[in-house]
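Section 3.1 - Work completed
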Amino acid sequence: MNPIDTFLSAQTYAVAGASARQHKYGNKVFRALIASGRETYPLNPITEEVEGHRAYPTIAELPTVPESLSIITPPEVTRRVVSDAIAAGVRSIWMQPGAEDEDASQAAREAGLNVIDDGACVLVLLARE
């Protein structure tokens, strides 16, 4: 299975950088995953709720470990999110355009995670489903 199919075949998801503001990319990705019928949790340390779903500050505080994690954060935040994802046991990460961080990608790959960090956009792929 290719990396994108692996990511999209998960049962549970989280979106790091999910935003309560609908014009923000993190909100659009969260809504697209929910609309596609996927169990998805928003991660945002300063927002309590995203689209009627309780937001969680960190992966460790989620009720379950997501299999796949979409990351829409600045690269310096991405490093911490990926470190948390590795520690929690997340299996697949997708750094959305602008969130990519070379050190985080390398750490994730070395930990055995499926990594998408090539500028591909999850919204484009979900629109094709």
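Second construct:
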Amino acid sequence: MKYFFLSEGWEVDRVWGSQGLWNATAWRRFPQIDRTNLCIVDRVETLWLYRVEDAVLMVEVKPIDAETSAPDAIGQVVLKRLMSAELALQRLTSSSAICQLNRNQN
């Protein structure tokens, strides 16, 4: 498994695998991307930990409500370097992070 942190208010858009842009029809399934119940609160920003399957190489993310965001806001970001479990744990346990458990996740 691989991991990444995503700011609250953002969502996963396109996904790339080893053969290029993920094609759910060809693969006969969508990529496995799950938001865990762990987050880091860094000042005023909440960053949720996501888990993705090893076949995923890159993930494009975008704001959930792009129409109402500021005109100079970032429109989308491509995450090219996903973390290992060790790096994710290191970030969760760093002294500058606060780890929270969300028990009300859907």
